C-alpha cells in the first residue's frame, strides 16, 4: 500500500485520492514549515478563523508590514517603467535576504527616490517657467513698440476730445481721463504671459466684456508646443500682452488670467532691461539644464541599482505575505505554544509532506516535531487532476462547464481525442489544417520565450491552447485527406481515380456520367466526385449519415460512463433504473437508425431511411416493401419500439419508490442502533439519495426531479441526435466557402492574363482564406465542438458540482498579486 501511494500513475479518469489532515506545529518552526509546504505545493490550508476579521488575526501586523513593502516595490516599478528601465530577471533563488534589512533598505531607497523626484519636479517646473518667460520676452518685445506707439496716438486724440464736443460713442476711458486733472499724464499698464491656444478666443472675448472694451490685447502664436510648468504636459500656447488703465481693470484681468490657466510673467518697456532680462534668463536656463541632467543621471543609477535586485525582493515580499496569510488561517492552541492547521492533500503526497515537515523542524532547531494526523470527515474533498502542459488545456475546457465531483469520471480524458476530432469533421481541409499546424508549431517552438511575455488577451488565449489547436490541425489534415480537399482542390494522392470518361474528349462527363474502370479509390473521397452534378447530393448524404453515427457513438459513450460512475460509487439503483433503460431507449431508436445506415452502405440498398423511421412509429405493422433492408426487419422494429416505450416508465417510477423504501427501512432500523453507526448511515443515505442532498427525505421532490430527468433524456435523445447534424452543416459550409474563394477569386483572377489582376486576386484570396476560413471558421467550429461536448456528451453522466484543489504554492503566485 505504501509503495503504491509513494509514486502513483497519472490517472485523469478519476481525481486523486484526497485526505483531510491536521498539523500541530510548534510556533518557533511555523514560519519555516509553511514556507517549505509552499515550495512543495501539495497542501491546501483550510481557514480555521473564519469568525475573525482580517484585522483581528494574529499576524495582521506582519501582513500590513509586507503590504507596505509591496507598495514601495510597486512605486519602484512605476518609476523604472517611466524611466525606461527593465528589472533584471536574473537573481539567485537560494540567496537568503533578511526581511528586516530589506525593509530598512526599501525605506532608504524610497526616501531617496522621493526626494530626487521632488527636487527634479521643482527644477523642471522652474526650467519650464523660465522657458515660457523667455518666449514672452522674445515675442512681446516684437510688438511692444507698436503697442506703445498706439497708446501715444490715443493720448493725442484725447487732447483733441477734451476741447471739442464729447460724442456719445466716446470710450469710457476718455470720460475717466477728462474727469481727472487735465495736467495729469495717463500711464497704461500691461499684463503679459501665455494662454492655451484653444482658450485664446474665449480669453479675448471675456477680457473685452469684463472691461467693456477698455483694454488692448495683442497675441502671438508660439510655433512649437510648450511644456506647461503646472501640469508638466505639452500644450500649444499663445503669448499675450494686455494693456489696461486703472487698478480695477488690472484686478479683473488678473482674475480672468487665473480662470483661463494663463501663466503671467513680468515685462518692462525698457529696451535695455529687456536685453538684460533675456541674458539672465538664458544663463539660468543653462544652469538648470546642467543641474537637471546631473540629477537624472544620479536617479538613473539609483533605479538601476534597485532594478538589479527588484525581482528577488518582489518574490521575497510576495512569499512572506502569503506565508503570513496562511499563518492567519491557523488556530493558536490555548497553551500559545503551537499552531493547529487543517487542510487537504493528495494521499500520494503523504510521504513528501512528512519529509518536508521533518526538514522544517531540523532547520528551525525545534525540540518538538510536527504532528501529522489524518482526520475523518463527511465533507466532500476537493478535486485534483495532475495535468501537464498538453492535457491542462483540455481539462480547462471541461472545468469551464463545471469542476468534476470528487472521483467522478472525468470527461477530459475523452475530450483529448473527441474534441479535436469533432472540430476536424467540421473543418476538414488538409490545406487549412497545414496552415493551422504551422502557426501552432511556431507557438510551440517559441514556447519558452513567449511564456514570459504579455501577448494580449487574444494571443494569450491562443498560446494557452496551443496544444489543443495542434491536435485540431492534425485531425483536420486527417479529415481533409478523407474529404480529399486542399483549399477545396482534390488531388490523386493515393492513386488514380476509379472512374473515367466514356470517350476521349470527356464531352459526356457531366451529362451522362463517368464509368468505373479501376478499383475503388483506396483512401478517402474519390477526386472525380468534385465538380460533378451529383457531388453535393452525395456529400450531403455521406456527411449527414456520418454525423448521426458519430453523435450516437458519443452519446452511448456518455451513458456508458454513467454506468462506471454508478459502479464506482456503488449506486446499484442508477445502474438498473437509469443506465439500462437509457441504453435501451437510445439504441432502440437511434442505435437502430445507425444500424440501418451501416447496412445500407454495405449492401448498396436504395431504401429510404426517412420513410423507415417515420412509419416505424406511425404504422409499425405495415410491410416495408422496397424499404426492407434485411429479413425480420419489421418484427425487429416492433420489438425495439416496445422496448423504447417500456424504458420510459422504467426510468421514471422505480428509482423514487426504491429510494423511499430504503429511507423508511433505514430509519426504522436506526431506532435502536448504536451511536457509532450514525456516521455510516448518514454516508449511506448521501450515497443513496445521490445528488439530491436532502437531509429530510421528501418523496414529492425526488419524484419531480426524476420526472424532469426522464423527460429531459427522452426529448434530449431526439434533440441531441439532431444537434450532431451541425457536423454536416458546418463541414458543408466550410467546403463551399473554400470552393467559392478558390473559383471566384483565384481562378477568376488567373483568367484575366494580367499580372496586376493576378497579384490582387492572390492577395484577396490569402486575406479571405486567413480571415474567414482560418480565423472565423476555426472559432465557429471550435464553439460548436464545445457545445457538443458540454451539452450532448457531458449531460449524460457528468454532474460537475465539485470544487478545485487549490494548494498553497509559491509557483502559483500571480505577478499582479498585491
UniProtKB/TrEMBL annotation:
The chain crosses the membrane at residues 421-445, 466-483, 546-564, 576-599, 635-653, 747-775. GO terms for molecular function: ATPase binding; proton-transporting ATPase activity, rotational mechanism. It is found in: Membrane. It holds the Pfam family V_ATPase_I. Residues 99-133 form a coiled coil. It is a multi-pass membrane protein. The keyword Transport applies. Keywords: Coiled coil, Hydrogen ion transport, Ion transport, Membrane, Transmembrane, Transmembrane helix, Transport. GO terms for cellular component: vacuolar proton-transporting V-type ATPase, V0 domain. Its main location: membrane. InterPro entries: V-ATPase_116kDa_su (IPR002490), V-type_ATPase_116kDa_su_euka (IPR026028). GO terms for biological process: vacuolar acidification. Essential component of the vacuolar proton pump (V-ATPase), a multimeric enzyme that catalyzes the translocation of protons across the membranes. Required for assembly and activity of the V-ATPase. Belongs to the V-ATPase 116 kDa subunit family. This is V-type proton ATPase subunit a. It comes from Daucus carota subsp. sativus. The lineage of its organism: Eukaryota, Viridiplantae, Streptophyta, Embryophyta, Tracheophyta.
Amino acid at each position: 500500500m505504501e509503495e503504491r501511494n509513494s509514486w502513483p500513475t497519472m490517472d485523469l479518469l478519476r481525481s486523486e485520492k484526497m485526505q483531510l489532515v491536521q498539523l500541530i506545529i510548534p510556533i518557533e518552526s511555523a514560519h519555516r514549515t509553511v514556507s517549505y509546504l509552499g515550495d512543495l505545493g501539495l497542501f491546501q490550508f483550510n481557514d480555521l478563523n473564519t469568525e475573525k476579521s482580517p484585522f483581528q488575526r494574529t499576524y495582521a501586523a506582519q501582513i500590513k508590514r509586507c503590504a507596505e513593502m509591496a507598495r514601495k516595490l510597486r512605486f519602484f516599478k512605476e518609476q523604472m517603467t517611466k524611466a525606461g528601465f527593465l528589472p533584471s530577471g536574473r537573481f539567485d533563488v537560494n540567496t537568503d535576504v533578511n526581511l528586516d534589512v530589506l525593509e530598512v533598505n526599501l525605506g532608504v531607497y524610497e526616501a531617496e527616490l522621493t526626494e530626487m523626484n521632488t527636487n527634479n519636479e521643482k527644477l523642471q517646473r522652474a526650467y519650464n517657467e523660465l522657458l515660457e518667460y523667455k518666449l514672452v520676452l522674445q515675442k512681446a518685445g516684437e510688438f511692444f513698440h507698436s503697442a506703445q506707439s498706439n497708446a501715444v496716438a490715443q493720448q493725442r486724440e484725447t487732447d483733441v476730445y477734451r476741447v471739442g464736443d464729447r460724442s456719445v460713442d466716446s470710450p469710457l476711458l476718455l470720460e475717466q481721463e477728462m474727469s481727472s486733472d487735465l495736467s495729469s499724464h495717463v500711464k497704461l499698464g500691461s499684463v503679459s504671459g501665455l494662454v492655451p491656444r484653444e482658450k485664446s478666443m474665449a480669453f479675448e472675448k471675456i477680457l473685452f466684456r469684463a472691461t467693456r472694451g477698455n483694454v488692448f490685447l495683442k497675441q502671438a502664436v508660439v510655433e512649437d508646443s510648450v511644456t506647461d510648468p503646472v501640469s508638466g504636459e505639452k500644450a500649444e500656447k499663445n503669448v499675450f500682452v494686455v494693456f489696461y488703465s486703472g487698478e480695477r481693470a488690472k484686478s479683473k484681468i488678473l482674475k480672468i488670467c487665473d480662470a483661463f490657466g494663463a501663466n503671467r510673467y513680468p515685462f518692462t518697456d525698457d529696451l535695455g532691461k529687456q536685453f538684460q532680462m533675456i541674458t539672465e534668463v538664458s544663463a539660468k536656463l543653462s544652469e538648470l539644464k546642467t543641474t537637471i541632467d546631473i540629477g537624472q543621471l544620479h536617479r538613473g543609477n539609483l533605479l538601476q541599482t534597485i532594478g538589479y535586485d527588484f525581482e528577488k525582493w518582489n518574490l521575497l515580499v510576495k512569499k512572506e505575505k502569503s506565508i503570513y496569510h496562511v499563518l492567519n488561517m491557523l488556530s493558536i492552541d490555548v497553551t500559545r505554544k503551537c499552531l493547529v492547521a487543517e487542510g487537504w492533500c493528495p494521499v500520494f503526497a503523504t510521504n513528501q509532506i512528512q519529509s518536508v515537515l521533518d526538514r522544517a523542524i531540523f532547520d528551525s532547531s525545534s525540540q518538538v516535531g510536527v504532528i501529522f494526523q489524518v482526520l475523518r470527515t463527511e465533507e466532500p474533498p476537493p478535486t485534483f487532476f495532475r495535468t501537464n502542459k498538453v492535457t491542462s488545456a483540455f481539462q480547462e475546457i471541461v472545468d469551464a462547464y463545471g469542476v468534476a465531483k470528487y472521483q467522478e469520471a472525468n470527461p477530459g480524458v475523452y475530450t483529448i481525442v473527441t474534441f479535436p476530432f469533432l472540430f476536424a469533421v467540421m473543418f476538414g481541409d488538409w490545406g487549412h489544417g497545414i496552415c493551422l499546424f504551422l502557426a501552432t508549431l511556431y507557438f510551440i517552438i517559441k514556447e519558452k520565450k513567449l511564456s514570459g511575455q504579455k501577448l494580449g488577451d487574444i494571443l494569450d488565449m491562443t498560446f494557452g491552447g496551443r496544444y489543443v489547436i495542434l491536435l485540431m490541425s492534425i485531425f483536420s489534415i486527417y479529415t481533409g485527406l478523407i474529404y480529399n480537399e486542399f483549399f477545396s482542390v482534390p488531388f490523386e494522392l493515393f492513386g488514380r481515380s476509379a472512374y473515367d470518361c466514356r470517350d476521349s474528349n470527356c464531352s459526356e462527363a457531366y451529362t451522362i456520367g463517368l464509368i468505373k474502370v479501376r478499383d475503388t479509390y483506396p483512401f478517402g473521397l474519390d477526386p472525380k466526385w468534385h465538380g460533378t452534378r451529383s457531388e453535393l447530393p452525395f456529400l450531403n448524404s455521406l456527411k449527414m449519415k456520418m454525423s448521426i453515427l458519430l453523435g450516437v457513438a458519443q452519446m452511448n459513450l456518455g451513458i456508458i460512463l454513467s454506468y462506471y460512475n454508478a459502479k464506482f460509487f456503488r449506486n446499484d439503483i442508477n445502474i438498473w433504473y437509469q443506465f439500462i433503460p437509457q441504453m435501451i431507449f437510445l439504441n432502440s431508436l437511434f442505435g437502430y437508425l445507425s444500424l440501418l445506415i451501416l447496412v445500407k452502405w454495405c449492401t448498396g440498398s436504395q431504401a429510404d431511411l426517412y420513410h423507415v423511421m417515420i412509419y416505424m412509429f406511425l404504422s409499425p405493422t405495415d410491410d416495408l416493401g422496397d424499404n426492407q433492408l434485411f429479413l425480420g426487419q419489421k418484427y425487429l422494429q416492433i420489438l425495439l419500439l416496445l422496448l423504447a416505450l417500456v424504458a420510459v416508465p422504467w426510468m421514471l417510477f422505480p428509482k423514487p419508490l426504491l429510494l423511499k423504501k430504503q429511507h423508511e427501512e433505514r430509519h426504522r432500523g436506526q431506532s435502536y442502533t448504536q451511536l457509532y453507526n450514525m456516521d455510516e448511515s448518514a454516508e449511506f443515505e448521501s450515497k443513496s439519495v445521490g445528488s439530491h442532498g436532502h437531509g429530510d427525505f421528501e418523496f414529492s421532490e425526488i419524484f419531480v426531479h426524476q420526472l424532469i430527468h426522464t423527460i429531459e433524456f427522452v426529448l434530449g435523445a431526439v434533440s441531441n441526435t439532431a444537434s450532431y447534424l451541425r457536423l454536416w452543416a458546418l463541414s458543408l459550409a466550410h467546403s463551399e466557402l473554400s470552393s467559392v474563394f478558390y473559383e471566384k477569386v483565384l481562378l477568376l483572377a488567373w483568367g484575366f492574363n494580367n499580372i496586376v489582376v493576378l497579384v490582387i486576386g492572390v492577395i484577396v484570396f490569402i486575406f479571405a482564406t486567413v480571415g474567414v476560413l482560418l480565423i472565423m471558421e476555426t472559432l465557429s467550429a471550435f464553439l460548436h465542438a464545445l457545445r457538443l461536448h458540454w451539452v450532448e456528451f457531458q449531460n449524460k453522466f457528468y454532474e460537475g458540482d465539485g470544487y478545485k484543489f487549490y494548494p498553497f504554492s509559491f509557483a502559483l503566485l500571480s505577478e499582479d498579486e498585491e
